[in-house]
Amino acid sequence: MRRGSFRKAGKSKPVIYAVAILSILTAGLLVAGFLSSSGSKGFAHESTYERYDSGFVIAQPGSYDSIDTAVVKEIDTDKKRITFMNVETGRYYTLDYDGTTVIQDKYGGSMSMEQMRNGDIVDVTFLRNKKRLTGMKLSESAWILEKVEKYNFDVLGKNAEVGGGTYSLRNNLVISSEGRDAQFEDIVRGDVLSVSGIGNSVYSVVVEEGHGYLRLSNEEYLEGGWIEVGQSVIQRITEDMLLVVPEGTYDVHLTAAGIDEVRTVTISRNQETTLDVGDVEIEEAKTGKILFAVTPGSAVVSIDGEEVDISAPVEIEYGLHQMVVKAEGYDTITRYIKVSQELASISITLEESLGEDGYEPDYDAVTSVSANEYNSAASNYKVYIDSPSDVEVYLDGIYIGMSPVSFKKDPGLHTITLRKPGYITKSYTIQIDDEEKDITYSFTDLVKESTVTISGNTVGSGSPTVSGSPTVSGNQTVSSN
């Protein structure tokens, strides 16, 4: 009996436990229902709820509600912000980015923010209301020309000749140098550029390699001679000259009567380097004879500005000299000749001019000299530099005085350099027209700098924090030719 009673009692236990659990669940539901009903009506009727959309969206990596094709104008890595320019409207806008922002090259490969740069044309995705950048990819439709050394930008004509092609300039362009905004006038002959665009339009120009400045000290024995800075600059040496030179390291060849020396200099962007040539060795000047064969026979040959008789060999000192050959109805040729042997010959054939008046100046041949051989009615007028005031003004490296200052109007492409001790030297490229009227330029104020001494050469250091354009009426063209 006991074993049987024991079995019956054992079988009844699961029933007792199930009843207990069911009781607890029922009680819990009743309590929950009571608490819920105290805060809202109709707990059993969901249809009576009023739903409210707060607009909050949990942003997932890669999610977006807007897309755009734009040019990177500025990247602020401290604030993690990027300013873009819309390629269609030219409108600027700023977006924040973080570690979830997806960055890709045009093939979909991963990139870091450090690899992006001002002037890049990108396809972007973002959350408009949050102003948050979710994705940025180098645009597949964009092209880029790098290491461009030959270019011509006609700002008013809205066209450009770059890398052998012709393009249109958009009204809104991103122009950048050293990560900062720049203007076309800040680009000086010799600067190396990257140019980007879509289709036949240019949208951005970035100065990849800029320019610095070279000054000679104790150059009295060299005045009237020539200076060659690599293949970049060839110019007659004058007192207090200041040369604009592309950044880099160069052999500087100095030639004058009895002087033939080579020095090495390093030019840094926006810095001035002084080369002391007071210790040059002066030897007895050597001369060589040059036999000229020139067509047409009526041509006139000048060496270093002086006409020479080419009916017999011409005796010329060793070194570099400027030769100009001209004849009525023919294109003028301006070249440099280097005399380094006792006897040599030069053969020259002029081409008939296409100019309306029978004379067409060879601008390409005279771009590296301080003044060309072209005279026109415009030379009776002047160019005025009125601001900033009290700064040294150089025209194509030649000192012309303290501003406000003026000089004879000489049509063509020229470099204006402004300098003041304690301030960052600044250069502008200007296109002087041939109209019979005076022209005035006003430039922005110079920016203060610090000065240090490196390896015996005085070097001005610092970078401008502002940039601006000269105020002028007339055509504005920037060219590397």
> What percent of the residues sit in helical stretches (DSSP H or I)?
under 10%
CATH architecture of the largest domain: Sandwich
Report the major sheet.
8 strands, mixed
Number of helices: 1
Uncertain stretches of 5 or more adjacent residues: 1-59, 356-376, 451-469
- How big is the Rg? 37 Å
| Total number of distinct structural domains | 5
* CATH class designation of the largest domain: Mainly Beta
Secondary-structure content class? mainly beta
Give the percentage of residues in beta strands: over 45%
The total strand number stands at 37
Outline:
This protein is mainly β and 481 residues long. It is built from one helix and 37 strands.
Structural overview:
The chain has 481 residues and is mainly β. It has 5 domains: 47 residues; 73 residues, OB fold (Dihydrolipoamide Acetyltransferase, E2P); 66 residues, Immunoglobulin-like (Sandwich), CATH 2.60.40.1120; 80 residues, Immunoglobulin-like (Sandwich); 103 residues, Sandwich (Immunoglobulin-like), CATH 2.60.40. Helix content is 8%, strand content 46%. The protein has 1 helix and 37 strands. The protein is elongated, with a radius of gyration of 37 Å. 29% of the residues are buried. The N terminus is likely disordered.
